[in-house]
Amino acid sequence: MQTLCEGSPAQKAMAQESLNRWWWPTLMMFGPADDASPNTEQSMKWRIKRFTNDELRQKFVDMMVPQAEFLGLTVPDPTVKWNEARQAYDFGEVNWEEFWAVVKGNGLCNHERLQARVQAHEEGAWVREAASAHAAKRAAREAIAA
After folding, report:
1. Nearest-CA neighbor of 69 among 124, 16, 137, 113?
2. Of 34, 87, 92, 94, whose CB count within 10 A is highest?
3. Are 54 and 117 in the same domain?
């Protein structure tokens, strides 16, 4: 990002577009809000997780906003502002409907992603067939040798 931001105006625009595109999906990546997460409480109790989804999301925002500002980028959340009392950034609410749509297979790129998997499976059929033929040939040789 720094290299893009130090480059041409087109490169800086590309960096800003990337931040705009990935900001909200990245915040979603930490998982549902703690009050909607079925596993957070148990995972914290068993110490599988050291921080809740909301805590991790907050740490990310607190780390990334100053970096974006340093690079001259604008975080695509107009509500982001420093909260002096909390010593952390306040930020907008994640669109959880979009998050759950993606989780349920109805995201923007799900169709394309599934089509790519189907195509890869179909185009890889010859590899599976060759491996199966080789295994059968080897088993037949071993049966004769035994």
Report:
1. 16
2. 94
3. no
Question: What is the per-residue burial (b if ≥16 Cβ within 10 Å, else e) of 46-84?
Answer: eeebeebbbebbbeebeebbeebeebebebbbeebeeee
Range of 119's domain?
Answer: 109-146
The domain total for the chain is 2
Cα–Cα nearest to 32, from 93, 109, 73: 93
pTM, full prediction = 0.73
- Claim to verify: residue 94 and residue 133 sit in the same structural domain: no
Q: Which two tokens stand for residue 28?
A: 């979603």
Mark whether 100 and 66 lie in a shared domain: yes
- Mean pLDDT calculated for residue range 105-133: 91
pLDDT tens, residue by residue, 78-118: 999 999 999 999 999 999 998 888 888 888 788 888 899 99
